Every structure is written in C-alpha cells, then in structure tokens.
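Hey, I was hoping to borrow your eyes for a little while. There's a protein on my desk that I can't quite get my head around. The fold is given in discrete form, as structure tokens running alongside the sequence. I'd be grateful if you could look everything over and explain what you see. Here's the protein in full, and shout if anything looks odd to you:
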Amino acid sequence: IRCWSNIPFITMPLSRAHGKSFAHRSELKHAKRIVVKLGSAVVTRGDECGLALGRLASIVEQVSMLQNQGREMMIVTSGAVAFGKQRLRHEILLSQSVRQALHSGQSQLKDMAIPVLEARACAAAGQSGLMALYEAMFTQYSICAAQILVTNLDFHDEQKRRNLNGTLHELLRMNIVPIINTNDAVVPPPEPNSDLQGVNVISVKDNDSLAARLAVEMKTDLLIVLSDVEGLFDSPPGSDDAKLIDIFYPGDQQSVTFGTKSRVGMGGMEAKVKAALWALQGGTSVVIANGTHPKISGHVITDIVDGKKVGTFFSEVKPAGPTVEQQGEMARAGGRTLAALQPEQRAEIIYRLADLLTDQREEILLANKKDLEEAENKGRLALPLLKRLTLSTSKLNSLAIGLRQIAASSQDSVGRVIRRTRIAKDLELEQVTVPIGVLLVIFESRPDCLPQVSALAIASGNGLLLKGGKEAAYSNQILHHLTQEALSIHGVKDAVQLVNTREEVEDLCRLDKLIDLIIPRGSSQLVKDIQKAAKGIPVMGHSEGICHVYVDMDASVEKVTRIIRDSKCEYPAACNALETLLIHRDLLRTPLFDQIIDMLRIEQVKIHAGPKFASYLTFSPSEVKSLRTEYSDLECCIEVVDSVQEAVEHIHKYGSSHTDVIITENEKTAEFFLQHVDSACVFWNASTRFSDGYRFGLGAEVGISTSRIHARGPVGIEGLLTTKWLLRGDSHVVSDFSEHGSMKYLHESLPLPQRNTS
C-alpha cells in the first residue's frame, strides 16, 4: 500500500521497459502509464451545448478505478468550448432582459436570436467550469486532479517542454491525475510543414495530436482515444460493406477509406489514425474506441485495459496466420462448399478421418504425451481433467468406430425433404434440411472432442470454428491437421478451422455476424460463462450435469448396486455421472440399503448426506452443503424420499434436466417416472452413463442439450440441421388467390421421397 496525503491506494507490479509497444491486446493489462483522450463528441451533449454529464461521470469512475490500482492515468480532454458556449448563451439571454419576461410570465425565449459565438471566447468561458466539474467528480473517489493548458509552441520550446515534462512527472508521483487540454482561448495556428516529420515532431493542432505527442513525451504504455465511432472501419461507418478493423498495422492506410469528421471537434478519423501511428512509432500502444455508446461506455476503458476486443488496436506485429474473423469467413465459405458436395463425398471425408486416427496413432499419442507432461509439470489440472485430457489406443479405436457410424448415417442428412405440400395447381412447397451455418465449439481438456465434432460438422455440412484449451494444444494441433488432410480430398480444407490466436472466449462470443451457434464442451462454469458472454448468438448445452438415480421400494436387489456402481464409478468426471442418489424411505435399514453403502465404500465414494437422510442417522456422513452440486469425482449425495412423486419433485427442484433414472420392478411406477420427469433423458433400470451420442447410435455428439428449443439430449447430426422452404411455381401471384381470383388454395400433403437407408 502506497499513500499520498493520507489516501491509501493499491499498487500493482506494473512495469516494463519503454520503447516498444505491446504486440497483443492481452498484454495491455500490464500497462502502467495510460493516457485517455476524450473527443469532443464524447464529452459534449448531442446539441453541442453543454456536457454529457452521465458519460463523463462514468469515465471518471473508470479512470479512478485504474488509478487506485496503482496505474498512472492522464486525461486529454475536450469540452471547454461546449461548456463555455452553454454559459455564454445563458448570459446573453439574461442580458437581453429575459428576467423581465420570466417575471411577467411571458415565454419569449424561443423567439430570441442568439448570435454565433466565437470558439476562443467559449473556451475562455468554459475552461474553469470544466475543470471544476472534473475536480468534483474525482473527489468522490478521493483522487486529486490538476489542470494543464498547452499550445503547440510549448512543445517547440525546449525549456517549456522540460518544464511540462517535469510538472507531469511530479503530479504522477503524487498520485494526481493531470487533465490536459489545448489552450483554445489563445491557441495559434499550427506550424507550417511541421507535421509528422519523425518521432520527435508532430504539430499539436487538435487534441488527437496533443494526446499522441504527450503519450510519446511521457513514455506512456497505452493511449486510449475515445470518439463517437466503434473504431476504425475499412470503409466509412454506416456504409453497407463497412467492417470494423480489429487490429490495424502500419502500412494498412491504403485499405481504408476515411469519411467525414465527427459532428464536433477539430479532427476526423484520418487525424486520429495519423496521431495513433505516430504514437505507435514512438513506442506507445493505441486503441481507438467508442466512448458514447450507452451499452459499453460504462466499462469501455477498463475493458480495453483488460485486453478485451474493443475498438481498433494498433500493433506493429502482424500475426503469422489469419485472424479469427478471417477464419470465420473461411469456415463460412468452406461450409457452403461442403454442403454442396454429394452425401457420398462427405461420408468419404469422414471415413478418411477415421482411418487417419488409427493410421497416425503413434503421432497422436506422442503429441498427447507432451500435453500430459506439461500439465503434470505445471500442476494446473485436477485429476478429473487429466483423465479427460488423456488419449489412448482404445480411445482412438472407439473414436474411429464412432466416426464410421456418423459416415454411414449421414447419407441423407442434408437436403432431406421432410414435408411436401401442393399449395395449388403447379405450385409445390418443400421443407428440406440444411446446415445451421458456422458452429463455434469451445472445449476444455478433451482432444477427442475435436474429431467427433469435426465429423458431425462435416456430415451436416456446417462450417466449424474450434477453440480448444491450451492444455491440449499439441493434441489439438495434430488432430486438426488430420481433419484438414481428410477434408482436402474434396477441396474443402477451410471448412474446419482451429483458433490458435490469443482470442478470449468472451471476444469469440461477440462475433454474431460470423457465428450461428455456440456449443460449449467443458465445466459447468465454462458453459455459464459462455451463456453470459454470448451476444445475439444461441448457445447449445447444459450448465450442469446433476443426474439422479431413484431407488424405488420395488427395486431389484441384483440391479441396484450394478446400476449405481456404473452410474457413479465408471467415469465420475463425466457430465452424465450420478451425483444424487434418492432412496425410498422403506429401504432404510434393509439389507439392500446396506449393500448400496458397502459398494460405495469399496469403490471409495465419499458420501454426503441430504438433510432428510441425515435426520435418520445418529452418526451421519458430512451433511451436504447444497443439493444442487455436481461433484465430477468419486463423491455423491444420498437423500431419502417418501414416494416416487416426491422423487420427481426433488429432481425438478434440484436437478439440471440432464439425465435421471428410476430402478424398480413396478412397471406402473416406472411409467409414472418416465412420463413426469422433465429431463432431456429419463431411463428405467439403466445406467445414467447411457446418455451419450455414441451409445444412442448417433456416432458421436457435439454435446448434451438441456434446453427445450431446437435440440435436446445428446445432439448428433440432426441437432446440427435446420430447414428452409423451397417453392416451385409457374408464374403464380398472390392476387390470383383473392376472393375474385381465378385460383384456389389446395394445401394437399404429398408423399415424401424414399429415404436412402442403405
């Protein structure tokens, strides 16, 4: 803890040698000294008269938060002219005897002409008020602010430059936020032919160039330029083909068309880019972003510092491969080509991938061994995740078998006619299956997921973006290489892309124009995070796998321990493993109950007692903290219920609608359970572990969905398809079907074409 004027604040270990800008957004969190430039459009109201107080308060809050983390924050602000204009207009109205009109109750304000106000006079009138406002806002966070007014001449005079530099350093040392602005009351015109002549010279003719000059002079790590546009576009924002540029590199100016400048202020986007490139050349990283959007302005500065994909990031380091946006476009184009192939060709690709999994077994296992060694050396994975990370010969053989099942069952998946209707004479309608589009599958510690999901995407004609965990980097790399090798036999290599860039999952979830469906495969926390982060993109999956087994009073002794052991102990880390065991009250203190407890102890399963179960015992196991717990390990909860109805109610209250089982010999009780439990999978006298795409005969699955829209349960090829309508007519128009028209609707159902079941 450091202190200044008895105000404590937390310091962070932020330091780096200045001279080279950050290469990646993820490095911005290490920025120690930051300049935030607030454009006129950010600070002023829409009527250009007065300040946008709400936005300004939010910006001050974010700057204060970063300052109190131990960073050194500086603000280059506009707004003096707008604030002065508001004050002068008010004074002019009052000086024109408005007081008499107000006192007499007459409203003459609308009819009074207000002369055009000179900008320098407005600046002179607004500077003190603007600074007073900043001081009042920063005081709320126990932070002191100081005003510095500069002109271009201050940077050309060596002594003035040294004085300015010393003043700023002293203010930063004292934990004071400098607020810098051009002295618009006396600002002279810029020096002729002095703009951008090298690292040491940039003419200060607006706050963009001032911010850049200041950033380089003060050796800052990051310059954040806030304006009224999202960032830099490849064509003027608002045009049909305009795309936001995520990362801008020196030399890319030729690919950009600049539009007009913002509604207020001195500089447009071209001036911002020039200033940003000049600062970048001087070793300062730059981000240009929107500071006016109501949904993001409240956290835009902190998001940028956190490395999130906001605005345009200026970098001198070009990535070796394509950006994730380019990969998304490649997957879209490749997926459309894939969907246009014959079913036999798509099947041939999957068969080839299955062969490669066994032919290249040694190379795959060697890569997996590297991942396992790194994970064990770093000690960053729990035992259940290490098990998921591990590949073996038997796993690869099972994968290959599953892929061949997918290939065999995919012959008529895309383009299958599921409805035919004769609307009228010579007017026929068909509903056919089509791919969803581009899928984003995010998976943790499960390299076997990659070929499974790839095969399902290929079979369904979808483009695919894969984002695997870094703990499986080597395994994912070779499996993706083999997938692309298989795709290459029909020239659709680009349909499946592996995202290797430093994209955060949250940033991927914002690519709503490139991705049509997100499928998370991993921990419940991963699924929850993705569901929260996804903006306008549907997410297929389940956040938890809280699976129940209910042992009814009429359960078979032989079946009970067998099913429970398999459900809990066969693979406890799986999402379809037993987590809560419900036992009918009449079975307590019976030989069957003792057999269940003995079996769990032999298998070293830790037991947690539900509140009702604990009340029956003198010395009970540890009472469960929550009945909504997914253990993913050799642990489970035991709870007592009085009837099958109570078991159903418990499952609905504490379950996750994943997989639930009843063990009973009473068919009536079983049917009640099957019909009333509202879960994706409900079984009678069978292990929860059967809830799996491969075991269902789907070949594989992209995941298990607990949602009630589109797909539910283990999701195979069918869950990755949607439909479109095809209408074939002969000069048909709706007016022919009006009351006095010549045609009538028939709406006759037509037989479907014979499916290929070979």
